[in-house]
Amino acid sequence: MSRFYLTTPIFYVNDAPHLGHAYTTVTADAVCRWQRLLGNDVVFMTGTDEHGLKVQRAAEANGLTPQEQADQTSERFRDAWDHINIAYDDYIRTTEPRHHASVRAFMQRCYDNGHIYKGTYDGLYSVSDEAYVTQADVDEGRVSGPVERMTEENYFFKLSEFAEPLLEWFEREPENITPTRYRNEALGIIKGGLADVSVTRTSLDWGIRVPWDESQVFYVWYDALINYATVAGYDGDPDRFAAWWPATRHLLGKDIIRFHCVYWPAMLMAAGVKDLPKFHVHGWLLIGGEKMSKSKLNQISPENMTEEFGVDGFRYAMLRDTSFGPDNDFSYEALLSRYTSDLANAFGNLLGRVAAVVESKAGGIGPAASPDSPLRESTAAAYEAASKAWEQVQPSVALDATWQILRDANEYFQRMEPWKLPEGNEVNAVLGDTLECLRIATILASPAIPDAAAVAWQRIGMTGNPADQRLPEAAEWGGYGGGTQVIRGDPLFPRISSD
Ligand code: MSP
To answer: Which of 6, 24, 77, 261 has the most ligand 1 atoms within 8 A of CB, as the residue to mutate?
Structure first.
């Protein structure tokens, strides 16, 4: 058994949860559910990023204190994640005392190690990106909102000193950042030259106080990134941190590569933390070719989608129809077509049809799978492909491989026409083999569609829950022993009309 610690970015509480946030979070949830099927010890964390100017200004605009703004919006994120069945183990809020303690200890360590000095920042700041930017960033369109001039006496992190150690890390760990295109992007940032960065602010209060100079607060990113260490036990629980930190993997969108894949590893080195995380970066979920944002009014909440497609329908279509890495356009039509072909037809309809024939030809009792089934080999190959894809954080590939089992079973069932066969061994073999395919596919699909998988599991006569099965053993052919009642029930995924 190994440890697996997966994080999502923590979301700013200036804004309500939308599909873009849900995309990262559903992916992380499914990947963790897969790891649990493998019997690994998993910690899955998500949470909210609550300090900084962006949140302070949103609070002012809403007539709230920053804490009230944070409390309300953080709760909305938590509700959205509960609604779409996100099984997180820890939900961190950066306003929690455990996080304050951890940030202060972490940054103090960097300071004591000689990597932080006092200087003057004089330059531009983009509140919507919560980032110090240059005129070139503005001119070349890398800034998402208006910029402000800032002159402050701040503390600086000697990022420039870490270019070499970062390059060594890239050399040492060819898989530190996937997919490769984003690894190259991070490498380009480092090779382009790293300037020292201001890590504190004097002109705002809404943040964590600097322990060696209480007149300043930490710049929001140097507070936010440390959340990952807080959850792993930094400061409060050194044994836990030692055990869990080496197992860390971060999931993030491509917009925050610089902070995650360059600044954060350098900070860890500065604080003397030896193990560096692995990073899995994804592109945008686009609506009509554009990134969702408050100003474009193209934000859709996860709840908007689940009303029609159900929680599992939404989760599945999102995971299956987006390739992890590039940008992906998201459309209602694509979602509907995926729901219909894969869930209503390939899965739900097969389940209904096999149950009907079990009822008419086998007295409602599922027959066992046959050891020499023609479906045995292709099912094993599909398992291997799915397993490899989940390992590489490629849910769409993993689900495509899983559905191959169902496509093969559908084709076989259709070709054998068991409803026309007389009762006996031949019909029993067709039914048992189809049920076995359903059993295996149900386990493998459970990270994406946990609730529907649990229902399908009962319907085919299995006890317990597919999520409690252990891979790879549970995916071996022959697990469907037969002899239990198969239930027809209502359609697992009711059809949705397009009008
Ligand atoms: N608070 C920072 C992250 C700090 S992590 C230490 C932040 N928050 S955010 O709420 O603006 O966005 C966080 C993440 O949401 C993005 O990196 C990305 O993972 C996800 N997405 C937000 N909009 C998205 C899309 N339209 N498409 C895909 N993911 C998107 O940045």
So the answer is: 24
**What single-letter DSSP state applies at residue 493?**
S
Tell me if 89 sits within 8 A of 46, measured CB to CB: no
Asked whether 325 lines ligand 1 (CB < 6 A), one says no
CA of 207 to the centre of ligand 1 (A): 20
The set of residues, in sequence order, having a beta carbon less than 8 Å from that of 242 and lying 6+ positions away, is none
Q: Which residues pair with 126 in a beta bridge?
A: 131, 147
pLDDT for position 290: 79
Which residue puts its alpha carbon closest to atom 10 of ligand 1?
A: 11
Residue with the smallest CA separation from ligand 1 atom 20 is: 21
Q: Which of 255, 287, 292 to mutate to test the pocket of ligand 1 (most atoms within 8 A of CB)?
A: 255
Q: Is 229 in the pocket of ligand 1 (CB under 6 A)?
A: no
Instruction: For residue 192, report the distance from its CA to the centre of ligand 1, in Å.
Output: 24
What's the CA-to-centroid distance between 81 and ligand 1, angstroms? 15
What's the pLDDT tens digit per position in 418-464? 999 999 999 999 999 999 999 999 999 999 999 999 999 999 999 99
- Upper half-sphere CA count for residue 14 (Cβ side, 13 Å): 18
| Ligand 1 binding pocket includes 305 (Cβ within 6 Å) | no
For residue 261, what are its two tokens?
Answer: 């894949």
47 C-alpha to center of ligand 1: Å?
Answer: 12
pLDDT lower than 70: segments of the chain = 293-298, 498-499
Alpha-carbon 354 to chain mean position: 34
User: Taking a C-beta distance cutoff of 8 angstroms, is the pair 7, 228 a contact?
Assistant: yes
CA distances to 10, 177, 270, 357, 445 from 276, in Å: 19, 11, 12, 55, 31
Using a 10 angstrom Cβ sphere, with 0-12 exposed, 13-18 middle and 19 or more buried, the burial of residue 1 is exposed
Q: Are strands 278-282 and 177-178 parallel, antiparallel or unpaired?
A: parallel
* pLDDT per residue as tens digits for the range 361-408: 999 999 999 999 999 999 999 999 999 999 999 999 999 999 999 999
- 10 Å CB burial of residue 347 (0-12, 13-18, 19+) is buried
Q: d(Cα 474, Cα 267) in Å, to the nearest integer?
A: 42
Ligand 1 atom 24: residue of nearest CA = 20
Question: Which domains are present in the chain?
Answer: 3-300 (3.40.50.620), 332-485 (1.10.730.10)
